[in-house]
Amino acid sequence: MKLLEERIRRDGVVKPGSVLKVDAFLNHQMDVALLDALGAEWARRFAGAGVSKILTIEASGIGIACMAARHFGVPVVFAKKSQSINIDGDVYTTKVQSYTHRRVYDVLVSKRFLGPADRVLILDDFLANGCALEGLLDLAAQAGASVAGVGIAVEKGFQRGGDALRARGIRVESLAIVDTMDPASGAITFRPDPAETAGGGKYPTPPEQIP
Amino acid sequence: MKLLEERIRRDGVVKPGSVLKVDAFLNHQMDVALLDALGAEWARRFAGAGVSKILTIEASGIGIACMAARHFGVPVVFAKKSQSINIDGDVYTTKVQSYTHRRVYDVLVSKRFLGPADRVLILDDFLANGCALEGLLDLAAQAGASVAGVGIAVEKGFQRGGDALRARGIRVESLAIVDTMDPASGAITFRPDPAETAGGGKYPTPPEQIP
User: Fold this and answer.
1) Any B CB within 8 A of A78 CB
2) Domain limits at A8?
3) How far is B157 from B180, CA to CA, in rounded Å?
4) Where would a tag sit more exposed on chain B, N or C end, judged by fewer CB atoms within 10 A?
């Protein structure tokens, strides 16, 4: 998605150790107009997929999920990273390794909010090794929910998470896939986006407007 | 705000120990249409207050803040609850006691995203003892930002947080204030809302329509 790629080039910062900081607009300070555009794009790509609920994980997925949910007209459920006394015992749980925070989290969703009737779209801001997504897929599987797909804002294409999910047949719609990034120059190359190149642009010309 | 009070009566659950669970629509599963209405209401109440940024704290404040920010046309910054290697060292930090999680969090905001030019609206889902808000006010003060006010979805009026803030001259706009709740019967009484009773309803009749 050109809008997101341009924003990453402009305001993203490449750091040593394969770190891409997008905290100016995506996961610390949040540009909600941009988030709204991401949501509209996922709604376009997953139109007709029967999404009944959006599933994400705290914290930075929540804003993205809420802005997107407005375009789908469905609720958001976010998985919580630790047991809270405000959560009933009746929960699905799994474990997620966080490389960013260098620890393993217990992650949970109440059984009241995820079940066999749900068809979930899983959304998150980042996809690198895919550990958070594996956790969310596990929670959906425990609940008996079906998965329409996964929507990601920024995928690190040089790490294994995204392609591992695709190899399992899971539909992954990443709106920007970073193939290479250079901390010395700050240069970033993005993987060409089939959803854009095939249609000739972010919003393909509607049939009635083709001369 | 009647819409929110009715939703709390319908889907909220009163538990022993002054616990009010609103996780079916506000802070685990999120009804984004409701969140959008809350955002519109804060935008109405804080119109002309010069809000340039919305400040909240992870995790459950984020969805509320993002949906509201759309109505203000400003970015969201959320305070993070622990040091992450993805955050630069250049941060404002404070400590927040969480009664829900029975621990003290280090909370931080990058200095790049909060400064003297900012006039912040602080938003959160819940206000009870006010510890999270005290932390956010401290971060704003460290940054030299001015505070337009505080917007809360659900205030527990029988705990000290809200009135302590008001006594300090801080404008607090809570969209539902629970004055009493009874775990045996589930009954909830709300504090009358001046913004509604004075104007005769959630949306006062515009002057040009008054006969």
Assistant:
1) yes
2) 2-197
3) 8
4) C
In tens, the pLDDT along B156-201 reads 999 999 999 999 999 999 999 999 999 999 999 999 987 776 544 4
- Tell which residue, A3, A76, A85, A67, has the closest CA to residue A30: A67
- 8 Å CB contact of B23 and A59: no
Angle between helices B61-72 and A32-45 (to 10 degrees): 100
- The CATH number covering residue A77 comes to 3.40.50.2020
Is B103 near chain A, with CB under 8 Å? no
Residue B197 lies in a domain: no
- Cβ-based neighbours of B24, under 8 Å, separated by 6 or more: A112, A113, B11, B12
Best A22, A30, A107 member to test B by mutation, with max B CBs in 10 Å, is A30
**Helix (H) or strand (E) run with residue B24 in it:** none
* In a domain? residue A209: no
- What is the ipTM, given to two decimal places? 0.90
Cα separation of the two ends of chain A:
25
Helices (H), A73-190: 131-143, 161-167
Whether B163 has its CB under 8 Å from any CB of chain A: the answer is no
Pairing relationship of beta strands B13-15 and A19-21 according to DSSP bridges? unpaired
